[in-house]
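Narrative summary of target 7.
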Amino acid sequence: MKIEEVAVYQLRNIFMLTDEEEKEVRSVTAVAEEKAKKALSGFNNKYLKAELSPFNSVINCNYLYWLSNELYKIGSGAADKVYYLNKMLNSVDLFYAIELPECWSCEHPLSSVMGRAKYGDHFFFYQGCTVGGNYNNGVLEYPVIGDNVIMYSNSKIIGNSVIGSNTLIAANAYIKNETIPDNSIVFGQSPALIIKQRKD
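Modeled conformation, tokenized:
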């Protein structure tokens, strides 16, 4: 079954997608499919290089993010329904107004929340990860994440944090208002992080 048809069927039956909303969904699905293919193509995983399958949670959550993002850009109310469909099916929070990079992926994305931030290319996250803002003197600040960053399970990047490129965020690490240099491996919790240089 085509990923577009499965999504439309689910939206109609769960969220009562209207005829007009269905037209809007179908008007952007080709763009969403191309963006999902491009996003997944940068990773060495044979399961992500095949045809877009609605029954692979990584592919499905990637596609539904791009679909909701494209609907948001044209001002369609269906963006909310696609966003909630992604939350319901894949247990991941990828709000349609955030700007994920052209190339990103995940593995077992359950309970992950990718909030407002500047994301570098080839971004990858596992289950239970959080990226989000933090107030500093009344100003809500968001992270800046470099290229080729991997967040392992239950890691968090919060507030005015700058994450250098080619960085690995270890499982359960908590980074808040910190600057991490390029080519790092980060362990522990702010303000007592352990930062090691990658040798590979």
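The first strand starts at residue 92 and ends at 94.
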